[in-house]
Amino acid sequence: MTTVYLVRHGETVWNAERKIQGQLDSPLTAEGISQAHWVAKRAKSLGITHLYSSDLGRAVQTASIIAQPLKLEVITDRRWRELNMGILEGRCIDDLSDKENAMRRAPLSGALDARILEGESMQEMANRLHQALNDLKSLPKGSIPLVICHGLALGCLIGTIMGLPAHAPRRIRLRNCSLSRVDYQKSDWLAEGWVVETAGDVSHLNENSRDELL
């Protein structure tokens, strides 16, 4: 069995301001930094051997905090990036027109190829995420990697492992610095492949942590 832990990055300035990040970036807030430290404490008990991260700054900043007590190098991989949200990146949700808001929701509308103008579809994102996840199976036996990723990306990855289409309406709530776990299993009673063990665990976080989903 291969075990992979997945963490959404800490709260960012744009999360707090309700701005669309996508593949643009903003730094962690003081709350986001605190969340990352809580994950680091939790991760020390998990036997983590490798630390991977999206190459976007908010994920790398979160990963760097987690890396300190683990004494691990952060390995960045652009395949773990958030959905490319095209022309809406950097915009505040509250300032969008009705047409722009409909465009923002398009990738989760149920249409296979829906995307924000100049962005990518959920299926395109799912393809790169699964490729990156499957590559972790080639790590030495006994390895336990932890990946720092993004909200829409992780929701899509977990959903597709559970058998949902990539463009299905969002049904998984993943808070900043929540912890998820997926296992690659071969057993007599489960089909060989990835299974979801835990999704969105926040038991390690301060109960007052904000629930930002941007």
From TrEMBL:
Record has Isomerase as a keyword: yes
InterPro entries named among the record's database cross-references: His_Pase_superF_clade-1, His_PPase_superfam, PG/BPGM_mutase_AS, PGM_Phosphatase
Keyword vocabulary terms for this entry: Glycolysis, Isomerase, Membrane, Transmembrane, Transmembrane helix
Residue stretches spanning the membrane: 144-166
Enzyme nomenclature, EC number: 5.4.2.11
Keyword Isomerase: yes
Pfam families given in the database record: His_Phos_1
PROSITE patterns found in the cross-reference section: PG_MUTASE
Domain of life per record: Bacteria
Principal EC category: isomerase
Molecular function, one GO term: phosphoglycerate mutase activity
Protein name: 2,3-diphosphoglycerate-dependent phosphoglycerate mutase GpmB
The gene coding this protein: gpmB
